[in-house]
Amino acid sequence: MTGKSLFEIRLCAREKELSEKYMSLYGRDGGYERLISLMRGYYEKRSPQLRKLDREREKNPDWFRNGRMLGVTMYPQLFAGNLKGLIEKLDYLSEQKITYLHLMPLLKMPHPYNDGGYAVEDFCTVDPAIGSNRDLEALTKELRRRGISLCLDVVMNHTADTHEWALRARAGEQEYIDRYQCYDTYEIPAQFERTMPEVFPATAPGNFTWNAEMHKYVLTTFYPYQWDLNYKNPAVFREMMGNILFLANLGVEVFRIDAVPYIWKELGTVCRNLPQVHAIVRMLRMILEIVCPAVILKGEVVMAPRELPAYFGTPREPECHILYGVSSMVNLWSALAAGDARLLKHQMDVIHSLPANCYFVNYLRCHDDIGWGLDEDEERRLQIDPFLHKEYLYRFFTGEFPGSFAKGELYNYDPDTKDARSCGTAASLCGVEKGIEENDPAQTALGVRRVLLMHAAGMSLAGFFMISSGDEIGQLNDYGYRDDPDLAADSRYLHRSRFSWQNAALRGQEGTVQHEIWEGLRRLERVRREHPCFQEDARVTTWDTNSMPVFAIRRSRGEGEMVCLANFSGQEQTACLPQLYGEYTDVFTGERVDPGRVRLEPYRYLWCEKKEIGSEKRREM
Ligand code: GLC
Q: What share of the chain is helix, strand, coil (3-state, %, to 5)?
């Protein structure tokens, strides 16, 4: 079978839906044929190695659900200076046994204001400060050799105001003005502002920016220098698809579609999660399946829990393959601050009730803040005041709340709504920084316990886990950004700091924070990789513990069973797990555990394997 016919076969299977979706947005004369020829062009340019990967993954489309999946997310320049440096440091990542690497935006960006790379000047060129396209291709090759898939962002919603399109729009070229949402007067912007919430109310208030060169207001949902693209224009859609396929041909295997809920706007709406967004994501999914089926989509959907499932589409018309487990992440931190795992359990019950096509990347920290999007109805049901609880959480994580162990900062505090989010590294938010600062080894050790508890709970969940680079060695907040006028206004730089190779070297030295955390994570990773109950077909549910602070996940597969427990409180707890009988053993210590009465020390986690006949044999695997 020739390569070309594979393209046609894949296209043929999807053409009806693709053309209908395209024409529903862009009409019959919207240039559908141009889209197809663009796709064919990228298919023809795809390398034999990547086509081989395409064929393998078509046979194994759930490859990313494998129990061995473990991710790391990082800024390559903070980790290793640039892409070449990163290639040299890959042994460190292989030592962590990762299979997935999410690099923060590395495409050409303006300096110094670029929203951490999320203002893109050129979607097809690596930023010279980080490397070249050739480096990126060399990196993806080396990663593939090591069994690591590269994930890159596609900033769908906007370009930098220095992107060629924006420059040409600014110079008055109508074709390019039409690629953005520009208005001569404030009349329509004012109507939008009535229903459109702000994303950065403190650092970039308002959704429009006046551009004196064009004499127009431009839609800028995020920073004023990030111009929202106009997806009502088919040229924008097609060109953005071309950019994505270009990067796929450099070997990118996962696209994190950034801020995707925002890409379509309609007057009188909140301009988020509109049906047209789903049509676009669905088309993108089909385009990838036709041109480069090895590649998958990860949605960045930082929305209320009820909005998330729609981004997976339906089993017949799937959209994203994976989403960030945003709600799980927020609930993990809330559980830690409150010593109460009930909201977390509820959230996981919601997730477990989703259709089988829903799959999450779980994480504790990433390059962004923690936005306190909890399930308010559930909070009210538990008699938790959502407003006060949110205030408690962000005050707790700055450390100002009495008794707090955390050190962090507020992000985008809005004095009118009293809304705020939180920043900090996992170790600092968990108390390691305070312990070290106060020269209190017991506090530090407790902080380390919390770091491991949080990771253990996160790694017990359905989905795969992604570590924020530096968290594996307990990296602390870096307050240096406050002295840099270009960064000072954005407290997310508190946890976007240079990776400390000096501290990383301590991971081999017993008694150090780095060693404790590193080894703890290695143990968790090993069990996940080897134990059948972490395989993709394991059944995962929560379990009652009859103890507010104790969270339980039960994983079962065939005869095998594992119960993962986490005590989110600073006090010892006794949990009682109904309807679990028999002999369980903690896989880390070999300790026997009686599910009718499990004692958990403060911030202790246990992964308890059920003993059954034949288990000795299995454990030898
Ligand atoms: C996403 C990114 C965030 C960025 C925003 C605008 O939410 O994660 O860092 O500021 O998009 O592109």
A: 45, 20, 40
Residue 44 to residue 406: CA distance in whole angstroms = 53
pLDDT at 620 over 50: no
Please return the burial class of 105, using the count of CB atoms within 10 Å of its CB with bins 0-12, 13-18 and 19+. Answer: buried
324 C-beta closer than 6 A to ligand 1: no
For residue 609, list its beta bridge partners: 562, 585
Is the distance from the beta carbon of residue 368 to the nearest atom of ligand 1 less than 6 Å? Answer: yes
Model pLDDT, residue 621: 40
Q: Which CATH superfamily is domain 325-530 in?
A: Glycosidases (3.20.20.80)
User: Atom 12, ligand 1: which residue's CA is nearest?
Assistant: 118
- Cα of 69 from ligand 1 centre, angstroms: 25
Q: Which token pair is 502?
A: 């000096």
- In this predicted structure, the answer to whether residue 399 has a pLDDT above a threshold of 90 is yes
pLDDT at 357 over 90: no
Of all protein residues, the one whose alpha carbon is nearest to atom 10 of ligand 1 is 115
Give yes or no: 88 in active site.
no
pLDDT in tens, 255-311: 999 999 999 999 999 999 999 999 999 999 999 999 999 999 999 998 877 788 899
C-alpha of residue 118 to centroid of ligand 1, in Å: 6
Q: Is any atom of ligand 1 closer than 6 Å to the C-beta of 339? A: no
CA–CA separation, 494 vs 100, rounded Å? 24
Among residues 135, 258, 368, 561, the one annotated as catalytic is 258
Domain ranges for the chain, please list them. 158-228, 325-530, 537-620
pLDDT digits (tens, 9 = 90+) for 596-617: 999 999 999 999 999 865 544 4
Question: What's the rounded Cα separation, in Å, for the pair 228 and 179?
Answer: 9
Catalytic: 612?
Answer: no
Query: From atom 7 of ligand 1, which residue's Cα is the shortest distance away?
Result: 259
Q: Which of 308, 286, 409 is nearest to 354 (CA)?
A: 308
The pTM of this model reads 0.95
The verdict on the CB of residue 228 being under 6 Å from ligand 1 is: no
Assigned fold of 158-228? Oligo-1,6-glucosidase; domain 2 (3.90.400)
Is 378 touching ligand 1 by the criterion CB < 6 Å?
Answer: no
pLDDT surpasses 50 at 396:
yes
The CATH code of the domain at 537-620 is 2.60.40.1180
Cα–Cα distances (Å) from 434 to 131, 268, 367, 472, in that order, read: 37, 47, 22, 18
Q: Check pocket membership of 289 for ligand 1, CB cut-off 6 A.
A: no
Q: Which of 74, 107, 118, 207 to mutate to test the pocket of ligand 1 (most atoms within 8 A of CB)?
A: 118
Nearest atom (ligand 1) to Cα of 222:
6
- For β-strands 122-126 and 182-183, DSSP reports them as unpaired
Tell me, what's the pLDDT at 4?
A: 60
Q: How far apart (Å, rounded) are the C-alpha atoms in residues 473 and 339?
A: 25
Which residue puts its alpha carbon closest to atom 9 of ligand 1? 368
Distance 600 CA to ligand 1 centre (A): 39
